[in-house]
Structure formats: structure tokens, C-alpha cells
Amino acid sequence: MDEVEVVVAHSERATLRVGDVFLKVDADQARIDVEVEAMALAPVPTPEVLWRKPPVLAIAGVPGTALGRLGKPSTASPAAWAAVGAAVRKLHEAPLPPWVGRRRRGPDDLMTELEGECALLVTNGILPADLVIRNRQVADAALRQWTPAFTHGDLQIDHVFVDGDEVTGIIDWSEAGRGDALSDLATLTIGHPEHLDDVIAGYGTDVDLDVIRAWWSLRSLLGVRWLVEHGFDPFAPGCEVDVLKSRM
């Protein structure tokens, strides 16, 4: 009998694996609704939905292996990274989904949230002030008007699966919606700047690299405190705090 593996678990949701089946438990039904609809609309490989019985969504595993892990070197080839870039471009060029997205905030809202988060990081002694101030300055470049695209919203490196140089699946679509395309590219390459050129080569269009780097700082600043409070370690080698330090 297959063992139950806890893939991730915190106060908002949990994902369990039993053999080749993943069970996502989420008390927020709207989040599950978004995930199912986004996978149906996205023009890229996604997991098969096996069944739904709130608050549980069962999906099939996808073939291949994760593109990598944050904090660890990726063993995927440059061609695989380029193939991911091409897939992401296809997603971004797809018709916009009918919903805005759970966390889609404009530049003004992001600025307000960022200012508050930076203050808490310093006041609570989580990060030194000079590190926060420098990255806050870098993040400014991301706070501009953008043309909405169909975005994944949480395109972490371990949410993308490849087999050789082929993309076999992109998972975890609960944050999908209309958003900033460069945020997706930044999330994909955060902690792996050595593969940014490969991704952009596959993406196949001119992008503002300064904005992507700004999103690295922005995403890290907004994520550190949440990660700490939910039992994750943003201070691990190669993770969010190291990303922030690399901007100094």
C-alpha cells in the first residue's frame, strides 16, 4: 500500500501524495475553483483533475521531474529552461481568464503593502534595516503599470516539470489570473539568475531585465515574514534572504 506523503502543509492548505495521486485540502473553495478553471484554460501541460469533493481536490501526478528546487542547483539543461520560457510565453499570450486573480494588485496597492511589510521586517528584527532599504529601492522598478496577461501567479521552479528538454506539466494554479507577465518570469528564476538568459531565449521577446530583478526583491520582501510564520526557512542557503543579500 502506498504511503501518505505530506508535500506541504500550513494553516491555509495542505497537499498530500498517495502514489501518483495528489490530494489538495483547502478550506477556501474559491482557491480550488480558480485552480481547476485555470488548468482547463491554460494552453500548456497541466495535471489531470481526477475528482473534486470539497474541501479536497484530487489530481494526477505529471511525468518528468521538477525543473529544480529553490536553494539547490538545477540539473535541467539550458534547453529545458528555454522550453519552459517558451511555454510561459504561450500562457501569457493566451486569452485573459474571466477573473482578475486572488492576489492581483496594482502598483499603488503593491507599494502600500511593500511599505508596511518592510516596516514590519525591520521593527520585528527579522531583517537588518540596510538590507530592507536597499531591496526596497531595487523593487521600485517593478511598481509600474503593466498590460495584464494570463499569469500562473506562483510559478516557482518546483511547480514546473520537464522530461529531458520537454515541459511535461505545470502544477499549482490556485493563484492564476490576470497579472504582470514579468512577475511570472521573476518567480521562475528567483534564486537561479544563471538561467535567466535561457528562459528569456525561449520566451522569445525583449523583456526588461531590471524589472525581473526588481520582482526578485519585491517577492522576497513580501514573502520572508509569511514563510517564517508558517514554518518555512527563507534563511536557508539560496533562498529568499540570500536573494535579498545578492542585491547589496
Structural summary, described in words:
The protein is of the alpha+beta class and 248 residues long. The protein has a single domain, classed as Alpha-Beta Complex (Aminoglycoside 3'-phosphotransferase, Chain: A, domain 2), CATH 3.90.1200.10. The protein is 40% helix and 18% strand. It has eight helices and ten strands. It has helices at 29-41, 78-92, 107-123, 129-139, 181-189, 196-203, 209-229, 240-245; strands spanning 4-9, 13-18, 21-26, 49-53, 56-60, 65-66, 149-151, 160-163, 166-170, 177-179. A five-stranded antiparallel sheet has the order 1-2-3-5-4. The protein has a three-stranded antiparallel sheet with strand order 6-8-9, with helices on one face. The longest helix is centred in the C-terminal third of the chain and has 21 residues, at 209-229. The radius of gyration is 18 Å and the shape is globular. The N and C termini lie far apart (50 Å). The model has no long low-confidence stretch (mean pLDDT 93). Keywords: Transferase. This is Aminoglycoside phosphotransferase family protein. It comes from Streptomyces justiciae. It is an enzyme of class 2 (transferase). GO terms for molecular function: transferase activity.
Would you summarize the structure shown here?
The protein has 248 residues and is an alpha+beta fold. It has 8 helices and 10 strands.
Question: What descriptive keywords fit this protein?
Answer:
40% helix, 248 residues, transferase activity, alpha+beta, Aminoglycoside 3'-phosphotransferase, Chain: A, domain 2, three-stranded antiparallel beta sheet, AGP_Transferase, five-stranded antiparallel beta sheet, 18% strand, globular, Aminoglycoside phosphotransferase family protein
